[in-house]
Amino acid sequence: MRPDPLPGPALARPAGRRARAPLVSPALFDFWARRLSPTWSWNQPLARVVAREQAASDAVSLVLKPNRHFRGFQPGQHVNLGVEVDGRRLVRSYSPSAPATADGSFRITVKAIQGGKVSRFLHDHAKAGDVFTLGQAFGDLALPPEGDGPRLLLAAGSGITPMMAIFASLARRPDPAPTTLLYSTRTRGQRCFVDELRAIAAANPALQVRFLLTRDRAVAGDEAEGRLDAGLLAPWLDASAHVLACGPTGFVDAARKLLVDGSARFAAESFSPPVFENTDTGTVELTLARSGRTLVVPRGQPLLDALEAAGLSPAHGCRRGLCNTCACTKPAGATRHLLTGDVEHEPVSALRLCVNSARSDLVLDL
Ligand SMILES: Cc1cc2nc3c(=O)[nH]c(=O)nc-3n(C[C@H](O)[C@H](O)[C@H](O)COP(=O)(O)OP(=O)(O)OC[C@H]3O[C@@H](n4cnc5c(N)ncnc54)[C@H](O)[C@@H]3O)c2cc1C
User: Fold this and answer.
1) Span 129-155, mean pLDDT?
2) Closest C-alpha residue for ligand 1 atom 18
3) Which ligand 1 atom minimizes the distance to the CA of 94?
4) How many Å is the maximal CA-CA distance in the chain?
5) Which end of the chain is more exposed for a tag (fewer CB within 10 A), N or C?
6) Domain ranges in the chain?
7) For the chain, what is the HEC assignment?
8) Does the C-beta of 61 come closer than 6 Å to ligand 1?
9) pLDDT confidence bin for 230, thresholds 50/70/90
């Protein structure tokens, strides 16, 4: 990836990368640097929108050019994007939908969710020249090494994005293992990347694509109607197959049920908001050690939500325990992990605020 140039001498550029701190505070450095170029920053990964394209009836693709602080990604990973909407900075996760180009630019594709703040904003208003904050890439959805059995990529809705990046990266390999991408949408108009996927499949006999339509009639030879079922998945009910699935929770759960007994290697991610079971009631006292504040928060509520409800803005990203952005030290108190139900009484150095709730009075290093 070619880095953006550094600001000029007036902003006290360190000699090479020897100096570890700017002569002014990083915030002041960024304030002046961003007047010269909107993606110059001392240490914050930022990305400028360089192109936008309607990807489907309800989805937009944005090509982002990151600054030199972004360390890149593997196809299948995700990034957190910070966007200002109505004066509030909101963070959401998006998955690059193509491998990075030679200059480090990459594409994200955002499906507009009804009532969604960030997806609607990006779909309706994002334009070339806009600058967003970026987090470093995260996520473990990745293909196994070549030569290790057939692969099946299952995607539904916006879950196509990491699968598209993986599929396109396979097309760049000289001799990829046999891989089928099964892509489900309600209608034909909601599909993204149709021409791109068909072109890859036409050029490479090892890479196949199948479109599944749940509301439209199948017309083309590579289309089928209906939902995932045992018949469609029969060729992969084989312990040597690797299956990756991404989509709404219902889709991922259906795939898991159908495949997990037969296919030994199944990995999945869902983009739907997690549903937390709240069994704890009452309130506890939460002490924020650094600021010295004390709050009363409900037991059973994600700590991130409780802090936001109290008017605080802790750093956060995916809101489902994947990206670690909200992790902080818990010197004392008991917490419950809201996805597993596990209770932790010991001090913890990286408690994820988005998926843990308070069980007892608690101290956080915030
Ligand atoms: C690891 C990861 C990768 C992701 N990659 C992509 C991607 O490549 N493309 C993409 O379009 N989205 C992706 N998402 C989803 C994305 O992060 C946002 O959740 C989505 O854009 C909605 O944000 P919003 O601000 O518009 O909605 P909000 O304002 O946060 O929510 C509005 C309403 O929509 C519901 N909602 C929120 N998110 C979803 C969702 N994903 N599906 C259905 N309903 C939802 C909420 O429960 C709420 O009722 C990803 C999510 C994760 C965790």
Assistant:
1) 88
2) 92
3) 5
4) 67
5) N
6) 9-134, 151-270, 283-364
7) CCCCCCCCHHHCCCCCCCCCCCCCCHHHHHHHHHHHCCCCCCCCCEEEEEEEEEEECCEEEEEEEECCCCCCCCCCCEEEEEEEECCEEEEEEECECCCCCCCCCEEEEEECCCCCHHHHHHHHHCCCCCEEEECCCECCCCCCCCCCCCEEEEEEHHHHHHHHHHHHHHHCCCCCCCEEEEEEECCHHHCCCHHHHHHHHHHCCCEEEEEEECCCCCCCCCEEECCCCHHHHHHHCCCCCEEEEEECHHHHHHHHHHHCCCCCEEEEEECCCCCCCCCCCCEEEEEECCCCEEEEEECCCEHHHHHHHCCCCCCCCCCCCCCCCCEEEECECCEEECCCCCEECCCEEEEEHHHEEECCCEEECC
8) no
9) confident
Nearest of 195, 182, 164 to residue 94 by alpha carbon:
164
Compute, in angstroms, the gap from residue 117 CA to the centroid of ligand 1: 9
pLDDT value at 115 more than 80 = yes
Superfamily (CATH H level) for 283-364: Beta-grasp domain (3.10.20.30)
CATH number among 3.40.50.2020, 2.40.30.10, 2.60.40.1080, 3.40.50.620, domain 9-134: 2.40.30.10
Q: Amino acid identity, residue 336?
A: R
Q: What is the pLDDT of residue 30?
A: 83
Q: What is the pLDDT of residue 263?
A: 61
CATH class of the domain whose range is 151-270 = alpha beta
Ligand 1 centre and the CA of 248: distance in Å? 10
Q: What is the mean pLDDT of the chain?
A: 90
Q: 21: pLDDT confidence band, cut at 50, 70 and 90?
A: low
